[in-house]
Design brief:
314 residues, alpha/beta, Purple Acid Phosphatase, chain A, domain 2, six-stranded mixed sheet, 36% helix, binds fe (ii) ion
Length: 314
């Protein structure tokens, strides 16, 4: 089975309409490359707006992907708290986060995509995270890594933390699938970079500090242990808008955060094949291929050139 991993769509009918067309092109490209299942690791909507969840539903429907056997999803920080688009938003953001009912927002998100949770295994409650979903050769595990808002510890509502309750349930779920011969992939929004990796691509020391304080996932050590003991081979995530393929503690991690928004402006995604031969890295039961669609960048470049010519002529 071929699994397409796409992340950080940041859909917004109001501010980021180009993300909508980029997403459609990425999905079309993945289907043409044989994708059987799609994984979206959070930040579906840019501003946690119901209209944008609806928009994503319609896009999935249009490609015949609005079903649990075709698509899996986890929640991102923008799906709960949104983000700031204007100067006024920046000023009001802390107040908005304080007012946000976290549990209600998670419920709203999962209710918009209830078709994608059909036949999922969830230990003992009505909560949607964590969950397990069996595919033909692989079991997918979905976790909510979005931390609650705090003026001090989570001032931009962008840090991550997996609650103790979720960690206990995930351990139970992994125990339940202990004897399966299927491979195991975990889906989560936040990244697992080492501290030095977090700062590797940033532009300034100050920005590095701000970024590492506001984008981090707390409690990674405990999560590594749960993943290792549970036999997770591959972790799919997003959150920072870049493409990364890295290993930690014998587990392979893929970041598809630049699928739609990224410095290179080239929409990209991963295709993970759970049937083909391994490529020698950790997560060796899977072959991984990075796909990108350079045509969009070329089109943007041509537009820029035209604008430049117009400026010169005037
Ligand atoms: Fe994010």
């Amino acid at each position: 089975m071929k699994i397409a991993h796409i992340s950080d769509l940041h859909l917004s009918g109001s501010y980021k309409r180009k993300n909508i067309s980029a997403l459609k092109r990425v999905i079309k490209h993945a289907l043409e490359n044989g994708a059987d299942h799609f994984v979206f690791t959070g930040d579906i909507a840019d501003n946690a707006e119901e209209n944008d969840f609806l928009l994503f539903r319609k896009i999935l429907e249009r490609f015949n992907l609005l079903s649990s056997d075709k698509t899996s999803i986890v929640i991102g920080n923008h799906d709960i708290f949104g983000g700031a688009q204007t100067a006024e938003d920046v000023v009001n953001f802390p107040y908005r986060c304080l007012k946000t009912n976290y549990a209600e927002k998670v419920k709203l998100f999962t209710s918009f995509f209830k078709e994608l949770f059909v036949d999922t295994v969830r230990p003992g409650t009505n909560e949607f995270f964590p969950y397990a979903k069996e595919l033909r050769n692989t079991v997918l595990f979905g976790v909510n890594s979005i931390d609650r808002y705090s003026r001090i510890k989570n001032p931009f509502a962008s840090n991550g933390r997996v609650s103790r309750e979720q960690k206990e349930k995930l351990t139970l779920l992994l125990e339940q699938f202990k004897s399966t011969t299927k491979k195991k992939i975990l889906m989560i929004h936040h990244h697992f970079y080492k501290k030095k990796d977090e700062t590797a691509t940033s532009e300034s020391a100050l920005w590095d500090k701000i970024e590492s304080y506001t984008m981090k996932l707390r409690g990674k050590k405990k999560l590594f242990k749960i993943f290792q003991e549970g036999g997770i081979e591959l972790v799919l995530h997003g959150h920072s808008h870049e493409i990364r393929d890295y290993q930690r503690k014998g587990i392979r991690f893929l970041n598809a955060g630049a699928s739609i928004e990224g410095k290179t402006k080239i929409p990209s995604y991963f295709i993970i094949d759970d049937e083909s031969l391994h490529d020698g890295k950790a997560g060796k039961s899977f072959s991984v291929e990075l796909k990108s669609i350079p045509g969009i960048k070329e089109a943007a470049f041509i537009r820029q050139q035209k604008e430049f010519v117009l400026v010169v002529e005037s």
